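Incident review: delayed structure delivery

Summary: a single-chain prediction request sat in the queue longer than the usual turnaround. Root cause was a stuck worker, restarted by the on-call engineer. No data loss occurred. The affected request and its eventual output are reproduced below so the record is complete for anyone auditing the incident later.

Affected input:
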Amino acid sequence: MKLVLLNLGKRGASLHLSLGLLRAAADLPDLDVRLVLSSHNELPEAFEPFAAKVTTIDTFSRQAPFGAILNFGAARRKLLTYLRRERPDVVLTVMPHVWTPLLLAPIRALGIRYATIIHDAAPHLGDPKARLTRWLRSEAFAADLTITLSHSVAGTLVAAGLPRDRVLPLFHPDMEALPRSGTRQRQPHSGPLALLFLGRIHAYKGVDTLLEAMLALTTSAPVARLTIAGQGDTKSLAPLIAATGTRLINKWLSETEIGDLLDTHDAVVLPYREASQSGVAALAFAAGLPVVAFPVGGIIEQVTDGETGVLAPGQDAHALATAIDRLARDPQLLEAISERLSATADSRSMRTLLRRIVDRLSA
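Output delivered after worker restart:
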C-alpha cells in the first residue's frame, strides 16, 4: 500500500505524530509512506532524515494570516499535481487543518481514498480555536474512513450522525520529546514529588483546581512541588501560584525545554475538566512518567489507575489532592508504574497504531 500523510500544521502534537508514523513505517515492509508537510513547520531539522519521502507546501504564518486565503490556490495545485504523480492508494490527514475540508473532494476526485484523524469532536472551554472545531471535524462526514485516538471522540462523532462503520477508534500513541535523548535515566524518588503540568493553559484544563489541590497539600509537610509550564493567561491564578510556591514557566515551550522538563520531574498531572485524549499523557508515558488525572473523557482510556497513573476518586480539588498524595507517599507505586509503562510500550507504539490503520484500509 502507498500512503501519503498530509500535515499542514506548523507546530505541536501533529508534528510528533507525523514523525512517529514515518519512523514506524520503516518496520512495515509492505507499506510505502510519504509525507506532505507545511513549509512553515517548526521542526524542519527533525524531518531531514526523511527528506526523500517529504514534500513541503507553502501554507501561511501567524504573522501573515491573509495567506490562508491568498496561498490556498497555489497550495491546492501543488498538492494535486504531487498526488497525480505519486498515485497513492490513500491520503491520511494527520490532523485537520483549516484547508483540509476543502481539499478532500478534489483528492477523492482523483480516485484516491481519503482518511482523517479527528482529535477533537467538540469545542473545549476557553480554547481560542474552539470556534474552528466544527469546521475541522466536518471532513469526518465526507471521508472514506475517520480515525480517532479515543473511543470518547468516536462516540461523539457517531452521536452527531457519522456512520459507525466509517469510524476506527484507536488509541493515542506514545510520543517522545524532541530531540530524542534516549532512555530516561530515573533516580530513586526521594523528597517531595516533582509534579509537572505541561501545555497550553485554558479554562477546561483545570489549573485553578490543581492549585487548590496543591494548597490543601501544603497545610502539612509538603509532599509535592509543582511546575506549571505552558502558554496562557495566569493573572487570576497569581495568588494561588504564590501561595503554593509553584514554579511558573509561562510561554510556548521549545522541544528541548519540554524534554528537559520531563527529565527533571517524577510525574505529570492532568487536572482537565473534560478531554478528548491527551498528547501530554503520551509524552509522559514515553518518558516513563506516571500521570495523575481526573477520570474524564478519553483520559480514562489512557490512564489506568495503578498501572499507567493514578486517577482521582472524584472531580474536585480534594479528590485531586488525594490522588497526588497517594502517589507522593508511595515511591514503590511510582516505580511500579514506570516499569509497567516500559513493559507495555509496544501496545501504545506508533508502529502498532500504523499497523492497525493499514489493516483497516487494506480490508
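Verification: Residues 2-170 form a domain with the Rossmann fold fold (CATH 3.40.50.2000).
Action items: add queue-age alerting; document worker restart procedure.
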